[in-house]
Amino acid sequence: MRNDVEVLRQARNWSQETLAKSVGVSRQTINAIEAGRFNPSLPLALRLARLFQKPVEAMFFDGHPGK
């Protein structure tokens, strides 16, 4: 699953550590999400979406846009 977490985080000039603390996870978890090595749980995806004021589906998407 692809995501825009890194883009959204960088647009706010936040470190991975800052974002991690904001949503209650480790910096390593944020790094893994941004790298596409880990898909967040639904509760974590919802926390991220709320924090960035975006719908979940606007932040997380499969590799095939338009499908």
Automatic annotation (TrEMBL):
Organism lineage: Bacteria, Bacillati, Actinomycetota, Actinomycetes, Micrococcales
Entries under InterPro entries matching the protein: Cro/C1-type_HTH, Lambda_DNA-bd_dom_sf
Protein name, UniProt field: Helix-turn-helix transcriptional regulator
Organism of provenance: Cryobacterium breve
Alphabetical list of SMART domains matching this protein: HTH_XRE
Pfam families named in the record: HTH_3
All copies of domain HTH cro/C1-type, residue ranges: 5-59
Record key words, sorted: DNA-binding
